Each structure stands twice: as structure tokens, then as C-alpha cells.
Amino acid sequence: MALWDSRFKKPLADIALKFSSSIHIDGKFYDEDITGSEAHVKMLMKQKIISVKDGNAILKALKEIRKEISSGKIRFNWRDEDIHTLIEDLLVKKVGGRGKRLHTARSRNDQVALDERLYMRKEINALVKLTRTLQRTLLQKAEKHKETIIPGYTHLQRAQPLLFAHHLLAYVSMLDRDVERLHDCLGRANRAPLGAAALAGTTLQIDRLYSAKLLKMNGIIENSLDAVSDRDVMIELINACAIIMMHLSRLSEELVLWSSQEFSFAQFDDSFSTGSSLMPQKKNPDIAELIRGKVGRVYGSLFGLLTIMKALPLSYNRDMQEDKVHLLEAVDTTKECLLLGSALIKNTNFKKDRFEKELDGDLLLSTDLVDYLVRKNIPFREAHNIVGAIVAFCVDNKKKLNEISLEVYKKFSTEFEEDIFRLLTSCASVNNKRSGGSTSPAEVQKQLNFWQKKLKKS
Question: How confident is the model over 316-325, as pLDDT tens digits?
């Protein structure tokens, strides 16, 4: 029986009921729904709105219902409409008329808003844990590659040499901001809408703060209209997931590039690779590609919910029933990709000696020449122009920077001396970096120490 049909002369048509049924989605919130109901009943008992006897009977039955649903004994059917209706129907079957007291001073509007917030609280903590795991995995790889030199890129063109550890730590830093965003969202998500009722509150003397305390929430949403009518915190969480996925997608793209024969830097473990049904030699980076591709799902969820909410008048509108599919999609996809991302990085081998010698004398050391001239008191712009001319000479003559003589260097500037050749190695380039947070071994070690300490506490 529907919770709302007492004023109707006809039941909802099957085609309309099936179309509007949401239990296949909100059924996943059964535990949160029961948790919220338990707190609500305890509050009603405390306020003497229902008797202790009735309240205890309801609480006992709710505990049984939770066990029956979690064990699979109870299966969802679209005719149940939503999880709230199903649980109340089951409750009434168990305790009779006393079960009908559960909904006192409550609407499905504040009930579903609470379910979603309890779900978000749980999943935010899970997302934080998985993000921290990925950070630790990247940190472990960085520790192994403190001396591995790779080319750094801008515009996907070689720019300057980097320690590979420095590159990996950039992702650790990005993911840390993702954790900060999740924690920020948690503070806003963990506020109770329960007691707002449909939109205007209730005439009954309830205690919203007590319910919130039972639920271990950090207060209530003060305005009853706001409590049931907005989904901004949900949008915020999906947005945080979208940013995490963007970071995972960038990392995945690099893994795909590095695993190509052209780069020959990353080698995936066979257990995280696939082959071709036609070409026997193929070893494909499918997991990285799938993570990269799944970002579209989360972006879609973000824009889907923004679109649902963009023109809704206050307060609740049935459009908002569609919010849960986007929340679940975003959270589940992000969790899965964080888990796979950690496993993929852990099971990938990076070739320590792939680039170092190749980069000696390479044009990506040009900035080191500019800095050399700046230290000789030549203005930066002038130094840049001098080295630019040297680069053009190297390109025209198909030479590396360490393949032209000092005599030739002096034709471009008399400030060049024999010591210039000591700078033209990738190792010298990273070692000579002096700025804080740079790719020098000393600065990278500081970063490693910082993240080891921070992630140990997390």
C-alpha cells in the first residue's frame, strides 16, 4: 500500500507506478534508512510522542528487517515503490498498528535527504581511505626512483630533466587536495535534515538536535525548507569525485604513453594487461585506458545532477528522485578506479636507466645554459636569446649541446668557459636545482620525508 494514497479513489496505474518506482536505486540506502528511523523513534520516545512500549517494539522490528534485507531474504520489487514504503510495510506486518507510528513528525522528504547524507558520510570516508592508499602506493614507487631521471614535458615536448620521484610526488600532492575537498564536503554533508518534515517543520514538539546527536551528526540544517530542497552537498561530492577522476585520468594517460614502444619506460605486469585477438605481439594497457575512459561517467553524473537542480522551485520536486543514480554512479566509479589505480601502479615496473644517458647533452638542458649566463651577469632576456641561437645552430647541424666545441660556444658569447660542459648532463641539471620544492635530490628527499610523515598519520 502506498504511503500517500488515502485521498485517491484509484490506485496508481501499473505503468505509472513502474515508471516512478525508485526502489531499484534507493534500496541501496536501506541501512541508512533504518538507521535514521531508529534515531527518529528514539527521539519520539524521549519526547513522549509515542510510548516506550511502542517504540521498543518498532526498534526490535527494524533490527530484524535490517538483517532480513542484508541477508537477501527480502527481495525488492518495483511494486514496493521505494525503500521507505517497503520498510514501513514490513514493519506494520511485524508489529501491527504500532508500526504506523514510525512516520510521526516525518516526511519522505526529510527522510530521503537524511538517507543520502548518511550514505555520503560513509562513502566520503571510504573515498578518503582509497585516495590515501593510492598516495602511499605512489610514495613507495617514488622512494624506489629517487635517482631515476626522466624528461619533464610541457606541451608534450621535452622541457627539462626531472627525477621520476618528483613526478610521482606531484600526483601525491594533487591527491592530497582531493582529500581536503572530501573532508570539507564531509563537514557540510554531516548535518541532519531530519525533523524538517515535508518543508515547513511540524506542530509536534520534536527534538531535532537529539536526533542529530544520536546519528553522530554535527548539527542540523536550520531552515526546514532548505533541508529538503537542495542537493548542493551531493553536487559538491560528485564534483570532488570528478576532480579525483581527472587526476586519475591524467596519470593513466601518462602510463599509456610510457608503456608504448616509443617511450619504453613503463612495463605493466601481465596480470594487468591484455592482448589482441588478432595480433599476437600486443600487450595493451587496458586498465589505464578504462580508468581514463570512466572519467566520462563521473563528469556525466555531475552535469546530470546540476541539470536536474538548475530550475527547480522550492521545495521538493519529484525530479530530485533522479539524484541518487548520479550519486551512486559517481561514488562507485571513483572508488573502483582508485582501487585499480593503486593496484596498477604497484604492479608496474619503470626502467631506471631508460633516459639518463640519452638526455645528456640534449636540448632540454638549454635552460641550464641560460642560467649559466645569468650567473655571469648577463640579463636573462639576452641570455635567452643567446641560447636560442645556439639551439638553432644545433638543430641545423644535427648536434647535441655537448657535441659542439667551446670555440663555437664563444662565437655566441665570450662568457662561456670550459666549465660549461660540466652542466650538460641530466644528472648535473637536477643536482643544480636550488629552489624549494624543486626536482633536486635534496628537495625531493624533503618531499618524501614530508609525505611519509603525513601519510603515516592519515
Answer: 999 999 999 9
Active-site option among 51, 260, 264, 276: 276
Cell numbers standing for residue 287: 586498465
Clarify whether 155 is annotated catalytic: yes
Cell, residue 135: 598516495
With vertex at residue 180, the alpha carbon angle to CA 175 and CA 186, rounded to the nearest 5 degrees, is: 125
Strand ranges (DSSP E) for 117-197? 149-154, 157-163
Asked if pLDDT for residue 118 goes beyond 60, the answer is yes
Number of Cβ within a 10 Å radius of residue 123: 22
User: CA-CA distance, 403 to 394, in Å (whole number)?
Assistant: 9
| Identified catalytic residue from 6, 155, 277, 435 | 155
Q: Are strands 266-268 and 157-163 parallel, antiparallel or unpaired?
A: unpaired
Superfamily of domain 357-457: Fumarase/aspartase (C-terminal domain) (1.10.40.30)
- 4: pLDDT confidence band, cut at 50, 70 and 90? low
CATH number of 5-104: 1.10.275.10
For residues 236 and 331, is the Cβ–Cβ distance under 8 A? no
Q: Is 173 a catalytic residue?
A: no
Q: 109-204+227-356 is classed in which CATH architecture?
A: Up-down Bundle (1.20)
How do residues 288-318 score in pLDDT, each as one tens digit? 999 999 999 999 999 999 999 999 999 999 9
Q: Do 62 and 98 contact (CB within 8 A), yes or no?
A: no
